[in-house]
Specification:
mainly alpha, 2 domains, two-stranded antiparallel sheet, 2 strands, transmembrane helix, membrane, DUF3667 domain-containing protein, DUF3667
């Protein structure tokens, strides 16, 4: 088939564009096409999201190495993966009518200054909306403890994937909290810690015990940055915006 590719403008010489890979014959968009694209992108075992999730759980070191070394089309991009998991969390939270445990909010010290108390409550209610701070913290702490392995931007790539998995775990925790009437957020954090250590041991070469200790400390620092940063942002929002 000859002609010009509608996507990139290259000259066609077959059923697919040799430059961008798009089909040569493109007609008007139909509901069937949208449904097929949605199904393939999310539920197909060969879709980037399925391959990304499978590899992140079974062989995270493979995904990190291949993506950093140039295999970009095979996997879901890190920022997009993080955003997708965050959007999925917000959707699930809305559908099941999840509300933050008010018992936790009730434990805020009554003697705390009004602005600090409001900021604390705001942070508790919106903590998962500040997950980008967890990404920032993970990247910084990884660079701190494994400073000579990768560049900071490469650690942030890894951090986006790990934060995406943390968000996925939070989704399951949210569902269990609503339908099981149990607050299991500490369990989710523990699972995230175990997964983080697992990723580091699989990805970094060297003594596994030393890597495990370093990754444990790195996770604690990242969570500290996450919580402290969330409170500071909450304080600013409560003080100057709300």
């Amino acid at each position: 088939m000859s002609g010009i590719c509608n996507n990139c403008g290259a000259r066609l010489s077959g059923n697919y564009c040799s430059t961008c890979g798009q089909r040569a014959k493109i007609g008007p968009i139909t509901f069937s096409e949208l449904r097929e694209d949605f199904s393939q992108s999310l539920f197909s075992v060969e879709s980037p999201i399925a391959i990304t999730l499978k590899t992140l759980f079974l062989k995270p070191e493979k995904l990190f190495s291949e993506y950093l070394n140039g295999s970009r089309k095979k996997y879901y991009r890190p920022v997009a993966f993080f955003i997708l998991m965050t959007a999925l969390y917000l959707l699930v939270r809305s559908l099941i009518g999840f509300e933050t445990n008010m018992d936790t909010i009730a434990t805020v010290d009554e003697n705390t200054a009004d602005v600090q108390k409001e900021a604390t409550v705001f942070m508790i209610l919106n903590i998962n909306k500040f997950l980008f701070l967890l990404v920032f913290g993970l990247g910084i702490s990884l660079k701190l403890f494994f400073y000579n392995r990768l560049r900071i931007i490469e650690y942030w790539v890894i951090a986006f994937y790990i934060a995406g998995i943390y968000t996925l775990l939070t989704i399951f925790g949210t569902v269990i909290t609503v339908y099981g009437s149990k607050q299991i957020q500490p369990v989710i954090i523990l699972l995230a810690l175990v997964y983080f250590i697992y990723c580091c041991i699989r990805f970094f070469e060297g003594n596994r015990f030393v890597i495990g200790v370093k990754s444990f400390l790195a996770f604690l620092i990242a969570m500290l940055i996450y919580v402290a940063g969330s409170f500071e942002l909450s304080y600013l929002i409560v003080s100057y915006i709300i």
